[in-house]
Amino acid sequence: MSVAWFVVFVLLWTGFLAGFASLITNGRVSARFAQTVWRGAAVLSVLPLAIIPLLKLLPKDLPSAIPDLPYVEPAAGAVASASVNLQSAVSAPDWAWTAPALLGVLIVGWAFRLGASALGQVRLQQLKSRSMPHREQSIALPLSNLRLERAPLIRLIDGGSPFIAGLAERSVYVPEALNNPSDLRQIVIHECVHLQRGDLVTRPLERLVADLFWFSPFAWMMRRELDFWREAVCDEIASEVSGDRFGYARTLAYAARISAPARTLPVAAFILPKKRSLPKRLSRLLETRPTRSRPIMAMSASVVALALSPFALAEAGKDVMPARDDRASQSIVFEHAVLESEKAKITSKFGNRKDPFSKKERWHKGTDIGAPEGTPVYTPSCGTVVFSGYKPNYGETVEIAFDDGSKMRFAQLSDRDVEVGEEISVGTKIGAVGMSGRATGPHLHLEHWKKAINEETGETEYQPHDPMMAEGLVLFAGGSR
């Protein structure tokens, strides 16, 4: 994946996930349900990029089929044209600096996020070193309800917002202004809920999505929503454990009034920085209206996300080469014409052309050879059939991988005479000319895909090439060009 496509892909993918998560969690829903939805969105946002390295390790019995991008379908054509234009722009001599410049910006952003995290840790340690132990009477806590063997220590700090931290020994840090037994009990219960639920471990992982994709506003939206729903879940549990929902809400409001949120500390603060979060948390605590989980919407969104994941993976890990696709590096010899017909002729060439349906400029990844319907189509060299079936817009299609790693797609056939996995020799009839897909007349749509080194990424990928420029390839015998 190029640097430019990485940025575009992340923006589109995180935007889609954040939009669906917002739709599902809008309204009066359970806090636990909303947190699960947003956690799922965060995981799905990084999952495609995490899976890509594993794809290269998976062997295949056959070479992979050619990427399935319709050559005349408007929406896919627009995407393909945008991709080609983007790749051409960033690889052109006058714009060759854009790729390293964009990569440099990304690296600077990641370095800044890493520095901000380190600074937060330094400030946290300084705040902890200045804290004082709470020496007044112990606070009665329902440890059995919290499923804790012992209560964490309580330490007082000058200001900020209450939080819990510590590795070997957990401590709750509370501003001196909140050193009131009733408020202190509510705060400690809230922080114990964080401890019991494992938020001290999961919170840093949840916030990584914004550190990795710092340039995406949707990633920051996920981070904010995860922070809010984490506290909302603890509010629900802590208010139930304390047995005083109104007292808990009063402590929350009082703490917000006298505390300044610790924005740069890598911990879950009792009061969130955003002002609008407090009224929302209080309304959830004080409302008696029952919540709903919207399982149907959650399942529908999950199905859509899973359905789109292959497309995200395809673009993110585009043209990952399976092991057996590198069977040989020698060149092949084309020894047979693709068509034998005196009436054959080129009707549409490779490259930009006016789409016969939309009448707009579209990128054409192959060459169209017009011929009478039923004209036999032959393979010009020996190879392996990697696809034989119907494709939208392409119609009946056969794809063949040759020994040099290149591949050809024969589309718009009226019938197919070969099956997937079949080893075919030179001059084998693979089908016949037709117009089984999106077409204005009978013709053969021929694509030639070859391996090439992407100058921007240095990776090997398949790219479409002009069949008329293939050395030794005879498109048709007889007829006129």
Structural overview:
The protein has 481 residues and is of the alpha+beta class. It folds into three domains: 3-98 and 294-320, no CATH class; 112-273, no CATH class; 327-477, Glucose Permease (Domain IIA), CATH 2.70.70. The chain has helices spanning 3-25, 31-55, 74-91, 98-129, 143-146, 181-197, 199-206, 208-212, 217-242, 245-258, 277-286, 295-316; strands at 132-133, 153-157, 163-165, 171-175, 339-340, 345-348, 351-354, 361-364, 367-370, 376-378, 383-391, 395-402, 407-416, 423-424, 429-433, 443-453, 460-465, 476-477. Strands 6, 9, 10, 11, 12, 13, 14, 15, 16 and 17 form a ten-stranded antiparallel sheet that branches. Strands 1-2-4-3 form a four-stranded mixed sheet, with helices on both faces. The longest helix is centred in the first third of the chain and has 32 residues, at 98-129. It is elongated and about 100 Å long. The protein starts with a helix and ends with a strand. Residues 70-81, 88-93 and 315-328 have low confidence and may be disordered.
Concise synopsis of the structure shown:
The chain has about 475 residues and is of the alpha+beta class. Helices cover about 40% and strands about 20% of the residues. The chain has 3 domains: about 5-100 and about 295-320, no CATH class; about 110-275, no CATH class; about 325-475, Glucose Permease (Domain IIA).
- Which residues sit in consecutive blocks of at least 5 with pLDDT less than 50? 70-81, 88-93, 315-328
**Alpha-beta classification:** alpha+beta
Number of structural domains:
3
Tell me the number of helical segments per DSSP (H or I, 4 or more residues long): 12
Question: Helix amount, in percent?
Answer: 40-55%
Provide the β-strand percentage band. 15-25%
Q: How are helices and strands ordered from N to C?
A: HHHHEHEEEHHHHHHHEEEEEEEEEEEEEE
Shape: elongated
